[in-house]
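Anyone? Bumping this.
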Amino acid sequence: MRSIYKITPALALLGVGLTSVLSQEERQSEEDLNGSIVGLTPVIEPDGAVTYDLQGRFQSISIARINPNGDIEEACVSSDAEMQDFFSGADFQNDQDGAER
Amino acid sequence: MKIFLILLSLSLLPLSAQITVTYTDPPGFGFNDSEPRTPVGGNTGTTLGEQRRIVMEAAIAVWDSFLVVNGPVEVSAEFAPQQCTPTSGVLASAGTTNFSRNFPGAPRNNIVYPASLMNHLSRSDRTFGPEITVTVNSNLDSDPNCLGGRGYYYGLDNLPGNQSNLLGTLTHELGHGLGFQAIIDTNSGAFLGGTPDVYSSFIRDLETDTDWQDMTNAQRLTSSRNAPFLVWTGENTAAAGTELLSGAVAGVGLTNSAGETTEFEAEFSMFGNQLILQGVSGQLAIYDDGVGDTADACEDPINAAELDGMIVLVDRGSCNFDDKVFRAQQAGAIGVIIVNNVTTPIIQPGGDDIRVTIPSLMVSLADGAILRAAAGDTVRLGNSFVRSGTREGLVRLFGPSAFQPGSSISHFDQDLFPNSLMEPFSSFRTRDDPDLALTLMREIGWEVRDIPFPNLTFELWATQEIAAGLPAGPDDDADNDGFSNFIEYAKGTDPTDPNDGEELNLNMSNDGFSVSRTNQATDLTFVIEDSDDLLSFDTATGVTTDTETIDGELLIEDFSFDTTNPQRFFRLSVEQDD
């Protein structure tokens, strides 16, 4: 699954549009942050072991944002909802709003 | 003879693999980028690619220097464009490639293990490919619009300034790949294949007092957002927490009618009487102003008579902290507990109203709910011995709720202080090693050498070192070598090997006293006692209690003799703490 979305430097130079590249990058993040076990099938090995190929899912992603004060802040997430919340600065806004009350 | 011994030692070394890395980038790109660079922060690389490889290998070395790796662990690493805007973006992603259960060497049946740990436990290469994948966002260095064009910091000194510290990021992400990772379906709460992963098998929800592996899928999904009740049950990590984590400065002690006391972490306000040691106790009452959130204390109370002489609980929000506390004070309150109104960490309530003279502090939303239900019980505001980021003595895990609905249980809680490598948010750390993640790795199955901080109690040590059926009490002697199990614990010797054991000896030199001891005990107190006549001993005077443990040796320095008495005898007392 990973190789489908990978954009090599050579491909970028061939003129893939910015919108398309961003879309694929976002799709890659979504795939990395896929936390579903649906469709992950077990392989039963001759010695009785049972193995699941995660197919690129359940990745942890380090992300960063630049806060209004200019500081860079980093976090590690494992779901798209966490990532979007961190990017939106929802928790940062809350702390600021609540600092004096 | 000496040479023979060295050769013998070498022949007995276990076959040990290492964590290796394979770079999959094409020539001239990513880890192979040939752009010239000036060495930075201890990174001697002279091209961008070389600096990146040096950072990657330094991150691996952080783990490799502690883990005994008995099967191949290959990290596949690449740079690739990932999501990024001028103000936010992906830094890197990582994870394990597969999970397996019931393989030869698996210590527990029907528990799935990550590929790297499986190879270690089975002492073989069962995956025939990388066990961990790492992808770093190439846009950070190539796109001036990505996160303001700040780029990665490639130094090894953890001084990134306003850049992203790639060493810290990669060290953290490798921790996930090595097993610091729960695998549950984020939509249903189901385990992979219906059996727990080894990480999840150590998770407990203290609110329901239920381990994750004993929950239904729906219960587990709900529990995954139930901070601050989610804890890691590993006892080595709990013991290490008592050594590495600081005690909370403030706390609330709630004593119920049965006389049982529960401690809650808190933050003192910046105004009013800031309690240090004395504390204040009283009955708990709930503020009621009859408007909106009736406990937010933004209007005068309608139940003032019930607040007189009480410790009063109010809610955060809608008006200033010092206004709330002053209104409660006017009604006769002797202290105020401010309950956070969001699930983000508690803060130090600010304010500058000099009319406030009573103490106040903030507790978490979850702890506030418990306190609110205990109106009428006795509470104490004051210093606390609750370790930061712990609950009931166990280290807490990160269970986000309001702002992180997807839930990421694969981190320690963000409240740990000093900060931990495996917390979800980057922060300044004082240690170079993976701190509590080392004990956690040991508990999930890795063999970890030389954990550089105490992580044992006698009971835990006895369970791990003395086989079932052998006498394991502190006064017992499992190997009949004449030294009790307790002495072997204090000394750090093998309690089941009669050839490994010796008395604890107190040594004296011009620099002070010393005794060789284990570095791993968290529950021992060493006391120097003295006597003039060998008949009665007391704690020695003239011997400071300042101690420093270096490489297993307890040094007791800065002693002085009472020169008026030329005869003085010393002995060492070792006590097990409660």
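Late reply, but here is one note on the structure posted above: The two ends of chain A are 49 Å apart (CA to CA).
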